[in-house]
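Hey, resending since the last one bounced:
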Amino acid sequence: MSGVNPSHAGSNPSSTGRDVRTVSGLTILSRCFGLARDLVTVRIFGDTAVGSAFAAAFAIPNLFRRLFGEGALSAAFLPAYARLLKNEPETAHALGSLVIGMLAVITGAIAILGGAALLGLVYTLAPDPDRDLSLRLIVVMLPYMPLICVAAILGGMLQAHGRFAPWAAAPIILNTCILAAAVPFFLFGGADPARWAYFIGYAVVVAGVVQLAWSLWMLRGRAAWTTRVASAKSETFAMFRRMLPALIGLGTLQLNAMLDTLIAMWPNWVGPSMLGHRYPLDEASNSILFYAQRLYQFPLGVFGIAVATVIFPELARASDDGSAFVRTLRHGVRLSLFIALPASVGLALVRDDLIRTVYTGLGTGFSEPGAVRAAAVVLGYSVAIWSYSLMHVYTRAFYAAGDTRTPMYTGLAAVGLNLVLNLTLIWFLREAGLAWSTAIASIVQMVMLGRIARRRLLGEPLLDSETRASIVRTIGTSLAMGLAVAAVVVFWPARGSWGARASALVVAVVAGGAVYAGVSRFVRAPELGWLLARHDPELEGPDA
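The structure tokens again:
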């Protein structure tokens, strides 16, 4: 353990605004690579049964990543690891070693047993090309699950050491590997999309190996791996007890998204009817849903989750200081809303041009009916981007305070509500009903968490006069931005070609961004300063 540089485990808190910029900047870069990945893969698969099969296979290991690697386990692990790193570094290294080992064994076993069970279904059920393709692709990509879950915990350890950049950059590896496997498709005339789906699936697993190696390399000199883990056993078991409720509380959005996938894949896995009635979705539904989800996840991942990621260690450090805890939570709420509300407004307004620019054109991609359906899905998801962002901040506040049960209970309520709404709204809105269900359930859960937080976590109202003024200011600024974007959308002269659509989209985004930044400066919104300033005096320690 002598090789660990103690300076890396220092406790000087860095600027929230600066760290959000770091995470957001690298996430923007990785999301741009992800957008390129989607541009390529949608032109291979389109809105087809193959596209739906690939989307479902890719979603399952990523669900485990979000629930375990970046969700429940990380939420239970990070506060304990950060606390021990400050007070008992030897025990912190033992905790990290034990958790990584247990996670590798558990998720590896799930991948092996799950793959065997799925192959058993392929060989025992009556042959069905669409279902068999989907199940085989899941088997191919399941090994990515243990690799990325372990890598994500390593990323959480890096964050505890004050290093946010390496893990924020890790998705670039995944997107680069997928692009390397996907682009050659266009060099072979008449290439089979189903066959290429396997090539891309293997590339995903390779990416998991590289991401794991990258995270280990970036932790050198900071973490010390050891087999002497006895000192961390009690902390580890306590952490796993906290993790079980967190699995639901922090994973609500992911669980809802998986419910959406399961419902959308019914025609592919079961058939075109349900209980004697024709099912309202078809074999292309999951492909449409998957690619539409990617568009709302762009601003959420770039900004909303970035704020929650950066604010979580701050909340954990302030958990024993009531005034600092409230101040940090207010800070996170204001930043999240300042970033996410205009994203909700803007995405809802540009959805048609965005879908047709990104997922159609060049003779491939979504069909025109598929583009119309995808735009309706984007509208449903976009109305609650602000809610998804605030929910991440609120949930982490409860976890930082040691309360994992409240997010679990509200999460269970949200998942139940989402399921009821899903099975109701799909008969009227098709895939868009899944999106609206997720949005409504998210808003309900966010309101519940906010009200409970005031009673149980805070000794004073969360929405003090400054926070209320910030919310009003953000709403007004977002409305001004929305008017500018709407003017471009409505009055743009022509959309007869892909280039015209793309031009309208670019002008709308630039106009909206300029108006939002300009009005924010005019009204002297401090949140803009927090994001731009190199140092944030509100959250700097006395020795900063």
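The chain has two domains: 44-245, 250-538.

Sorry for the duplicate.
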